[in-house]
Design goal:
The chain is α/β, with parallel strands linked by helices and 176 residues long. The protein has 4 helices and 12 strands. It has one domain: Rossmann fold. Strands 4-5-6-3-7-1-8-10 form an 8-stranded mixed beta sheet, sandwiched between helices. It has a two-stranded antiparallel ribbon with strand order 2-9.
Length: 176
Amino acid sequence: MIIPNLLLIAGTGTNSGKTSLACRIIESFPEIRITAIKITPHFHETTPGLVLKSLEAGFAVYEEKNRDSSKDTSRMIRAGAARAYLAKVQDNKLYEAFKKIMNEVPEGTPVICESPALRNFVEPGVFIIISSNITTKQKSIKHLQDLPHLMIKLEELEKQENIPVRFEQGKWICLI
């Protein structure tokens, strides 16, 4: 399934810069009211401010309402996201959880999503893989390394003044 209004971010591991990149893009385009999504296979304890939107076998979807926590979805709200969602999913329910969220998002809305595994199900307008010198808990994403529109290191991104993407006529576009 091709989703041109989706910018998908994958990382090479924990602390690779996925949320930092998402927040930087959100901050760069305050006028387009981006919806942010974080999909995780980790069923952590739910923090205050997460409002349950859907609970089904294999996944739970929440909307973030707390802009003051250290959670990634709160960071996205502080960066200027119009809405932010968290999906805790088992791998076999990932696409189903993503569809639940997208049913809440008005058609054509710019969406940024952190989820390497989602790339197995959809083709986004732009797909970015980010890595960092401080990455921990390396993830095996070799099967995705031929697919990105852009591969970037967090340390390089921090030196760049402009983000190499834009949202135009209902779709994300990679400028490189």
